[in-house]
Amino acid sequence: MKTALPVTALFFCIFCAVTCQIPPVPPEVDKAKAQENDLWRAGAPIYAPAEYARYVESLRAAREKLIRQKARLRWFRDYEEVRADYIVILSQGDTLSKKVQEEKRSQSQDFSQRLIRFETRMGKIKALTQMMNEHAPVRENLARAEVVARDAQTLIRDEKYNELAPKLDLMDRHIRQAEEALFSILARYADDAQVARWRKLAEDTISESRRRGTTAVLVNKLARTLTLFKNGKEIAVYEIGLGKYGLSDKLFAGDEATPEGRYRIVKKNAHSRYHKALLLDYPNEYDRRRFALAKKKGSIPARAAIGGLIEIHGGGNDSLTNGCVGVENSVMDRIFPQVAVGTVVTIVGSLESVNKLLAGLRVAGS
Amino acid sequence: MKKFSQFLVLGLFVVALFSSCAKQPTEAIDAAKAAIEAATKEGASVYAADDLKKLNDDLQAAMDEVNTQGKKFFKKFGTAKEMLVKVQADADALKATIPGKIEAAKNAALQAQTEAKAAIDEAKALLEKAPMGKGTKADIMAMKADLGGLETSFAEIQTAIDGADYFGASATAATIKEKAMVISDQVKAAIEKVTGKR
To answer: pTM to 2 decimals?
Structure first.
């Protein structure tokens, strides 16, 4: 009888141990683990660092509770509170996931729009390079910007927004360098006083043609046009081609620039190597004075010659000349009989300031 | 009473034996953490980010097990130790794979660099022999300028390789190659345009 009680107690304990159900770890625990992994892969530490840190902290606290429960004897384990915590965490994770997606969408839109703005800027600059032959420094920088733009597109596609900012900064730098090169080439064309002088020169030529009833030729370098006037009236406009540095004012032999000023046709060559040619009286008195001054100042090579043989000739308007004005052969055939030795040929940079155009670029870039 | 006392002492001894003899596997913990740290230093965060994350998760699970056992009256760190040993082994294995991955990324970058160079050279050669005639001269000049920009950008590939940014180098090289090939195609088209007119 003495041993009956402990034996009964022992059997009771064994019965309890065998039959008592061990409460299972709530399924929310594994769900939260998977969720944390998904959030990490989605980039939560990058796109919502503060929220992610709070989420991880909640997860850590819940795990502590879970550990405490697991450490208890199986009969005393109660996961209800743990489960409730994990349910809250799962909800917190869902919110965080939405926040991450939203942030990524927002960054994608933001970066895509910035990229589009840059590409628009690049397109405008590129379009302006069509107006000139001395575009090498501009286009080189644009090409560099295009390489970075493609890298940026790839990063947007791969949702690596955190790597995009430096790329876009680099792209901006290349575009600005292209703009600076462009502004430097077009600086004279944005100078209102210079444009006014060109305009005056053109008006004088047209007035003289009207007054004397003569033919006159007006070459606009930036617009790339040759306009024929008779009695002060415009009778034809043709496209032209210029030299490699055609937008610059010719100063000496070999600078591949096209002179600006008032000239006259001094010779008509019907059998030129460029189909037909009209030789101009470059250098005129003004050109000689300017050349002498430049030499005195040392702004041109000491051995430089002033050059000459500036013509309006055929051969095509898309070929690069050495400073002459090139037109299509068919155009030359039409011009040739209309002009005579002594006909005035006025060459101007532009009749319109490019300020508006360049300001447009700066607005697009701002 | 004497017997009861003897049983009590024996019981306390057994309890003390079970509860105190099982020590936290601190060596295994340190070894696992050090192994992960070594893998990270080797470049796992760049070249095997997912694997590294899994390792850290496994370490966390092992630490949870250590903590659970640490709070128990009867501590059994066997499972935790096994988990930690596995983490260490996995980390060592991951670390061993990193140089290979870096080498592969580097080789891919060098290959992409070579291909970009070949594409630039081809475009350059085509531009040299391109007919600078009517209808093409200005285009050829523009393409030469564009190619000049690509050549300048090409130098950035080496900078990226030197900085161990092999993925960045590969991406830039691929872009340069593609753009140089576009120029080659345009030159070929220009040549065809001229020869077609003849």
So the answer is: 0.78
